[in-house]
Design goal:
Dihydrodipicolinate Reductase, domain 2; alpha/beta; binds NADP nicotinamide-adenine-dinucleotide phosphate; 22% strand; Rossmann fold; single chain; 15 strands; 2 domains
Length: 337
């Protein structure tokens, strides 16, 4: 059976996921597209044999030829489309964020709980990265003892001019926030944001880098250095320190060359290069689960928790204070993180 996927939002990542669904993965095809820019959507549809063009996301979701939906539009539009998918009983893969406010995420969680089954997967693709998975395996095996703390770095070489310090938390560190919850099967209890010396490469009025300190409810501390003007490449690093040893995120998937007393390896240019395989694995898992009549992966609760922690991070950034994270009651539908 081929899963007929409708895509809402054909910008950068929407088109990358369409390529993935069309050329890389098996079991699915892009059956329908829409975008707020209909000319852009038409151009994309013209390259997809048999794909229909829809005037709006709501129209696409209602279409009988659409089995499941991919939401890759701008973040503030996600709530409307995810709620419509739940109302239509259709599985939906929503790129992060699930929604941009705590209240909107709560409405999605409530709707899914009322529907009585999981219909939403959120695109936190690091959970599907082989290097992160190996790291989590080492932590959960117990071989190196109980975890005490984690050091993480999230470095972007540069960002567009519209990027702000808030987006370092909402757009970049949100992935580290999800990793921390997933790595330790635990919730985040409080957030503090520290501001080191500002990089001369940062735009005026822009605090970069930031150190985001996450306190897990178990007491594990996670420090995330988030930099968006690192210049030399896209560098994602991590180390978990445990009672009997440590585990480091492997630095390179490629070859390390040693020559003339030096060694060298490649630093990825951007997130697409670093996480290409993770995106493939994530999507194949979604296609397989939806085809089997279930769902998988990061849930609406994970999307809700990430947004609540980001809100605390923004409050910590503007106030300079330690901000406790107050989550609502986790419904039974979401038993595991
Ligand atoms: P983008 O290039 O701006 O694409 C968003 C697309 O959605 C644009 O074509 C936009 O049109 C369209 N759109 C806006 N409002 C819409 C609406 N009401 N209905 C239908 N389409 C609408 O942005 P992007 O970089 O692809 O990001 C899209 C989403 O993916 C964001 O939520 C982002 O956070 C997420 N993302 C996740 C990752 C990851 O690492 N997992 C990486 C990148 C992006 P206009 O351009 O005309 O507004």
């Amino acid at each position: 059976m081929t899963l007929n996927v409708g895509v809402i939002g054909v910008g950068m990542i929407g088109q990358d996921h369409i390529r993935r669904l069309t050329d890389v993965l098996s079991g699915a095809r892009v059956a329908a597209v829409t975008d707020v820019d209909l000319d852009r959507a038409r151009t994309v549809a013209d390259d997809l044999p048999g794909a229909t063009l829809h005037p709006s996301g709501q129209d696409l979701i209602a279409a009988p030829g659409v089995d499941a939906v991919l939401v890759t539009s701008w973040g503030p539009t996600h709530e409307e489309y995810v709620l419509a998918c739940i109302a239509a009983g259709k599985q939906v893969f929503c790129e992060k964020p699930l929604a941009t406010t705590r209240e909107a995420c709560q409405r999605i969680v409530d709707a899914e709980v009322a529907a009585g089954r999981r219909l939403v997967m959120v695109g936190f693709m690091r959970r599907y990265d082989a290097r992160y998975r190996a790291m989590k395996e080492a932590v959960t095996s117990g071989d190196i003892g109980a975890p005490l703390l984690m050091h993480a770095s999230h470095r972007n070489p540069s960002v567009p001019s519209f990027f702000t310090s808030d987006m370092i938390i909402n757009d970049s560190a949100v992935h580290d926030i999800d990793v921390a919850r997933w790595m330790f099967d635990d919730e985040i209890a409080a957030v503090t944001v520290l501001k080191p010396r500002v990089s001369s490469k940062a735009a005026a009025g822009f605090d970069d880098p930031l150190v985001v300190l996450l306190e897990m409810t178990s007491g594990v501390l996670v420090d995330v250095e988030a930099s968006v003007n690192a210049a030399y490449g896209y560098d994602i690093r991590g180390e978990v320190v445990c009672e009997d040893g440590t585990v480091e995120l492997s630095e390179s998937a490629g070859a390390i060359v040693k020559r003339a007393g030096h060694f060298s390896g490649r630093v990825p240019a951007d997130w697409r290069e670093r996480f290409a395989r993770a995106f493939d694995t994530e999507f194949q898992a979604w296609i397989d689960a939806v085809t089997a009549g279930t769902t998988t992966g990061p849930s609406a609760w994970d999307g809700y928790a990430a947004t609540v922690v980001c809100d605390a991070g923004l409050a910590a950034l503007s106030s300079g204070q330690r901000i406790p994270v107050v989550l609502g009651e986790r419904p039974d539908l979401y038993k595991e993180i």
